[in-house]
Amino acid sequence: MRLIMIMLVITLILSYPLGLIDIGVWAKVGVNIAKFLPELGVRWDLVGDALIASYETLIISLLGVSGGTLIAYILAPLASPLIVPPRVALVGRMTANAIRTVPAILWAILFVILVGPGPKAGALALIIYTSGYLAKFFYESLEAISREHYDSLRVIGLRGLPLAFALYSHAKRYIISNVLFMLEYNVRTATILGFVGAGGIGYYIMNYLGMLNYQATLTFVIFTLLLVVAIDLVSYIARLRV
Amino acid sequence: MPEPSAGHAVELNDVFFSYGSTRILSGVNLKVGYGEAIAIMGRSGVGKTTLLKIIAGILKPEKGYVRVLGCITNTGCFNSLRGRIAYIPQNLGLVEGESALYNVLLAKAPSKPLRFMAGLWGRDDLSEALEALRMVGLDGKAKSRVDRLSGGERQRVAIARAILQRAEILLADEPVSNLDLDTAEDIAKLMVGLKSKGLTIIAVMHDKWLTSKYFDKIYLLDGGILREAV
């Protein structure tokens, strides 16, 4: 608690030049909320569009997870010194890290340029981003397996990718948990990708917000929320069953 | 480099091994004939597992040599032997959450990697695996998850894997520890019974009674030296 208080005091002091602790600013927030709330509502005529956009977002996320998982499944063994020589593993590891370092939104911008705006760009961006992220989780899961399990498989004569697949089966729960995490993450990210023209519900939110059409914006935000909650729920149930 | 010998399935010659500055093995000599079942005994921490790992080629001796099935360990010749040696570690090396059948079929993965990775086994592979499970008395348990099997049944799955592997040498690290007396005897009998299939067995054991009843020879490891118990 003491540490949190110290952190808070330091942050408040540092944020003073930005005007963040100006009481007047926070009072203005209250006034603006009072003006803004009556303008909110749901546009029932846009529910059809919102459903289609939610479906598009869901498919972009699923494509991102399945494509990314497949690539990561192959990439991770190439980044693990348990499977390939250490020098090859270093290259594999650096590749996975490089992919992961570029944020999903930048991949989306790149693919909007390469394949044009729409869900294709979003799906490709998430496939690449997910592969980098999961590759890290996967090679870490390979390396977390007990030495005895690894040794017994090596003695059988397993090498290379088949060895990695056998090791994966030891880490199945961890892998499924991370894939589900990426699915949840991708649904949230796919919403943002629409802001740069990579399809999905974010495209509508961005446009209606630009037109200051708050009722339409809120309609799509509600659907985003429902989609995220639904995916979290599915993920939660799946985790319980693994 | 010593010449290959056809006389013994396993031969250790003046083997030394240390973990850092701690000497574990100080000139171990051992000769195990084809089809023999030997037990290695000794107090906890004396290096029995280390010795087994050296024979399996998992650890490299710092001095001396180990010859298995005519090949010196850690050479190209030895690497070509993979699959002819089965190693059952203390934790059995089973994949938790998977079925007994899956675990036994792992023995086929090195020779059929694509089938293994795709999870598409042929009818022959499946019937061979089921036969291996039948031989260890697990006919009805093929689809049972190994983490839901008893300690003795799990041990049987590991032995079935060695059978399907058609291994010539079975290295087992404390195969009957944590089992009740009857189950431990069943497992020891089953394992040593594999001698009839031409298997050479080297097991780390603790139970003196079982060992003297079922094994051909008993060796004691103490102070880094291995000597035959009389």
Globally, the shape of chain A reads globular
Query: Stretches of chain B where pLDDT falls below 50 for ≥5 residues?
Result: none
From the coordinates shown, what is the CATH architecture of chain A?
Answer: Orthogonal Bundle
Name of the CATH first level of the domain at 1-82 and 206-230 in chain B: Alpha Beta
| Helix run count of chain A | 11
How far the N terminus sits from the C terminus of chain B, by CA atoms, comes to 33 Å
Task: Name the helix and strand elements of chain A from N-terminus to C-terminus, one letter apiece.
Answer: HHHHHHHHHHH
Instruction: Output the radius of gyration of chain A.
Output: 23 Å
The structure class of chain B reads: alpha/beta
Using brief descriptors, characterize the structure shown:
heterodimer; A: 242 residues; mainly alpha; MetI-like fold; 0% strand; globular; B: 230 residues; alpha/beta; Rossmann fold; six-stranded mixed sheet; four-stranded antiparallel sheet; 8 helices; 31% helix
SSE diagram, text form:
The complex is a heterodimer of chains A (242) and B (230).
Chain A: H1 2-15, H2 23-36, H3 47-78, H4 86-101, H5 104-115, H6 119-144, H7 147-156, H8 160-170, H9 172-193, H10 201-210, H11 214-241
Helix pairs in contact in A: 3-4, 3-6, 3-9, 3-11, 4-6, 5-6, 6-9, 7-8, 9-11, 10-11
Chain B: E1 10-19, E2 22-32, E3 37-41, H1 48-56, E4 63-68, E5 71-72, H2 76-79, E6 85-88, H3 100-105, H4 113-118, H5 123-135, H6 151-164, E7 169-173, H7 181-193, E8 200-204, H8 208-214, E9 217-222, E10 225-228
Parallel strand pairs in B: 3-8, 3-9, 6-7, 7-8
Antiparallel strand pairs in B: 1-2, 1-4, 4-5, 9-10
Helix pairs in contact in B: 5-6, 6-7
Overview of the structural elements:
The complex is a heterodimer of chains A (242) and B (230). Chain A has 242 residues and is an all-alpha fold. Chain A has 11 helices and no strands. In chain A, helix 3 (47-78) packs antiparallel against helix 4 and helix 3 (47-78) packs across helix 11 (214-241). The longest helix of chain A has 32 residues, at 47-78. Chain A is globular and about 70 Å long. The mean pLDDT of chain A is 92. Chain B has 230 residues and is α/β, with parallel strands linked by helices. Chain B has a domain at 1-82 and 206-230: Rossmann fold, CATH 3.40.50. In chain B, 31% of the residues lie in helices and 25% in strands. Chain B contains 8 helices and 10 strands. In chain B, the strands form 2 sheets. Chain B has a 6-stranded mixed beta sheet, sandwiched between helices. A 4-stranded antiparallel beta sheet of chain B has the order 2-1-4-5, with helices on one face. The two termini of chain B are 33 Å apart. The model of chain B has no long low-confidence stretch (mean pLDDT 90). Classes of the chains: A mainly alpha (242), B alpha/beta (230). At the A-B interface, helix 7 and helix 8 of A face strand 6 and helix 4 of B.
